[in-house]
Amino acid sequence: MIFKTTASSRKPFCEQAKRLPLYCLVLGLLVLPSSSFASYFSSPAEVLSALQFNAQGDVVFKSQNLPQDSNRVQAEPPANPPEVDPYSDEALEEDDPFGDDADTASDLEEDPFADEEKEIAHMSDPLERWYNRPVYVFNDHFYEYFLRPVAQTYKDLLAENFRIMIRNLYQTVTFPGRFVSSLLQFKLDKAGRVIGRVLINCTLGFVCMVDVANEEFGIKPVDEDFGQVLGFYGIPPGPYLVLPLLGPSSVRDGVGRAVDALMNPLFWLVPDFATGAGVTSEQMVNETSFFIEDIKALKEGAIDPYISLRDFYNQRREILVDE
């Protein structure tokens, strides 16, 4: 029975196989003529890109008439072509919206409004390995474990206005160094500002502690020292130098600091070493209280704080010499 059933099931398959050539002939007659219309229809990619959608996200179909010229093999562009992506390769080649053509590039090379900036030379550091870095590490430990905690406590206890008054007092007392340095550089306007600030603040500024000259008369402070005098006369800064407790400097500015110390009235008025050390320490703590957050940001944002501090000092000093 199994053999009969199998034999009977093969009979319809044989009949279908006999009709296979007929099916192929009919399929060929249908496919070959219709292939002549293929040039009138877009490719699947073109069709997908030409689809339009409404606010609900449904596809909006629009009927398109076939071209009258049957000899054409390229489809007519739609009446409303889709908007071209301004960031596509096609838009870049046609319109060049980013200005990569020759004319725009030449315009960018020469900017008539660009300010000419002086290139600051790199400061040499031959003493880095055996002196500067060890002293920098010592200063950093001194700052982290002693000066910063003391300055932070000092900042928390004293109001900012009172600390500014102490700074103004030191600025007024140490005016001779700025005055002489301004005269040696023939900067008479700055020398006049130094004297004017001293006279106004000492008479109207509550014992030189309030900066009345700046707040009421607009006379800005002057930042001049003997190191800038040496730079004004063309003396190069020389190698980078880290001074114990005093921080970054150079050979030229180290000499300038010594001269500034001699022109400081406190150097001659302080009776003994202990009193002088106390006055200097108070001034250092008071100044540090204004820059705790800045020093923290510099150390956290720099890969190598030593190099960042050296470059910052070099740029700052060169700017002051040129002013």
Explain what the structure shows:
By secondary structure, the chain is mostly helical. Helix content is 61%, strand content 4%. It has helices at residues 2-18, 20-34, 44-50, 89-94, 102-109, 128-157, 160-173, 175-184, 188-204, 212-215, 226-232, 251-262, 265-269, 273-288, 292-301, 305-322; strands spanning 52-53, 59-60, 240-243, 247-250. Helix 8 runs antiparallel to helix 9, helix 11 (226-232) packs across helix 12 (251-262) and helix 11 (226-232) packs across helix 16. The termini are far apart. Residues 1-11, 29-51, 61-73 and 102-108 have low confidence and may be disordered.
Features:
323 residues; mainly alpha; two-stranded antiparallel ribbon; disordered N terminus
